[in-house]
Amino acid sequence: MAAAARLLPVAAKRLTTTARARRLSTSTSTSPPATAVLYDQHGPPDKVLRVAELPAAEIGERDVCVRMLAAPINPSDLNRVEGVYPVRPPLPAAVAGYEGVGQVHALGGAVDSRLLSPGDWVIPSPPSLGTWQTYIVNPATAWHRVRSDVPPQYVATVTVNPLTALRMLCDFVNLAPGDTLVQNGATSIVGQCVIQLAKLHGLHTINIIRDRPGSQEAKDKLKQLGADHVFTESQLDIKNIKSLLGALPEPALGLNCVGGNAASVILKFLRQGGTMVTYGGMSKKPVTVSTSSFIFKDLSLRGFWLQKWMSSDKAEESRTMIDYLLDLVHEGKLKYEMELTPFSDFHLALDKALGKHGSQPKQVLKF
Amino acid sequence: MAAAARLLPVAAKRLTTTARARRLSTSTSTSPPATAVLYDQHGPPDKVLRVAELPAAEIGERDVCVRMLAAPINPSDLNRVEGVYPVRPPLPAAVAGYEGVGQVHALGGAVDSRLLSPGDWVIPSPPSLGTWQTYIVNPATAWHRVRSDVPPQYVATVTVNPLTALRMLCDFVNLAPGDTLVQNGATSIVGQCVIQLAKLHGLHTINIIRDRPGSQEAKDKLKQLGADHVFTESQLDIKNIKSLLGALPEPALGLNCVGGNAASVILKFLRQGGTMVTYGGMSKKPVTVSTSSFIFKDLSLRGFWLQKWMSSDKAEESRTMIDYLLDLVHEGKLKYEMELTPFSDFHLALDKALGKHGSQPKQVLKF
């Protein structure tokens, strides 16, 4: 797999009691012991994840020890634990989690204190496996300092969802103010970010959501964020779908995180020569495309995976974009619903993320 | 539809007897009367196509009158008659056919005789509707002079199939000698051209054909043309499809003219980041793609339609490529099976093209 994630060697760096005693004499400092969410084998997250104490870790000359403040439970975190994600950490004793925010706790002796100081807020950038723990030691270059005057849950979640939304608006179709895009799964955090970022750039959005109780409330909420049109899938079960566009131009870009019929209606909305980008498959159904969509309508179908994008030479560019997104959060122009749950209630947060308590906001662990 | 075909106003140009009498006095010359295959409404080709005599047509100052020598019956010709093609000629009295070769019969007074002379072989370029008739009058600029030392059936068919094969090798993926491509429908004329053109450019081909009686003979024939591997679909019903590649690199390009399972096996063969181009749908089944093919395998799915490509600013480029392809035919490097059928047996040729006589070679009408 070309897009290997950076693996934080967190567990490996933790010292056994014996090794610790031996190495402490030469090491300048160590982290505090950490509490972490670990797994030793792949399987159902509520079965295989366990909370455990880890011993102190050595802080090398160029390392920074960070006390974590918050980290979300994203669906892809659960997929990694299940073992259905193409990039897997070494087992046993893998620490779960992929993004989050922390505060600098201690610096190695060779870290330039003009770049990072104790108390600074930092995120792992690119994100890296192992954020569900209270202390992390990693090289200074792996951390990106961010503004600390926004709610920590936004900083903790800025990379996986908002950055995906922003990249997909930039990377596939050259959109100009006045253009239209269409997306399904519009109530997701990526979907909500797409609506708000599109609005900021003068783009119109056609949004598709599931038929379910409360869909009118969901529609109203998305319209308040700036959505031009919001349709449930059943509303799109008509012959002339484009009549629903009204005065809007036909969409040049479609974003699909659902698959199945919800992807087919995106293809129907797209203009001649349009592009659909798949970045998720919530329905677990494949995308089905007619021959004429390719030949006569000249549609292009692509995919987006943030982890691959970030593993290429985009480190600086992604940090600049993250700063931009956090500025928008600070200005009140980018918002989405989350629930901060204390880390001590990890299993409750996990159950909520797994859908055991019905529809719940995105769960963010507060350490 | 952006990609409107050039419509030869052939039938419209034909003079009614009265108009002819009136206009002949001022016109410099007229074509001979023509025999043509016409249709007045869309429907099954063997029901709606009729052979009819057309009156003489005026040859304008800048026109060239061409006596047609040969024209093929392509599947897309039949789709146009059926009305399932997005570009349709005006009815009634539309002349069928889209490509072919003819011989210059007479020139309008303002046509530069250094560019075209009586006896020259010419093709409509870009191809245009209405080639199934014995005489065609069209502006000189609509004709492209070609070499006349190759069998006329190759000149008659060089545009729709061989040019499609060549464009698809050029337009989507930057292939270098040693690279591999995979295609289904490999026994089609496009498929046979892909094999031969790929071989000439140092590219390897993986070829997929239907399971049917005589498939071993078909395999041998494609290997003689230069195919590296030929598999029937049932041979590909295995878990580790890529083990069949042997020492060949994973394909960067896939060409699909079938759809359904035959498209799915192409997607399995493709390398990370590969592209599949759909240019036909012989199985009448759609293309089905998993979410992970887009996200984790980063596949791109595109379409190719020669008629759209030629309607853009590619006139000169396509004529150069046609000359190149006819040079290859002359050198014996590009060949495929066809059957020349006299125009007087049009309905027999049509029935063969419609599959009423089992598997038959491509039918080319000989005028």
TrEMBL record, chains A, B:
Catalysed reaction(s) here are:
a 2,3-saturated acyl-[ACP] + NADP(+) = a (2E)-enoyl-[ACP] + NADPH + H(+)
Q: How does it assemble?
A: Homodimer.
Please state what the protein is called.
Answer: Enoyl-[acyl-carrier-protein] reductase, mitochondrial
InterPro entries with a match to the protein in the record: ADH-like_C, ADH-like_N, ER, GroES-like_sf, Mito_Enoyl-ACP_Reductase, NAD(P)-bd_dom_sf
The record's annotation in Pfam families points to: ADH_N, ADH_zinc_N
Does the keyword field hold NADP?
Answer: yes
Q: Which SUPFAM superfamilies match?
A: GroES-like, NAD(P)-binding Rossmann-fold domains
* Subcellular location, record wording: Mitochondrion
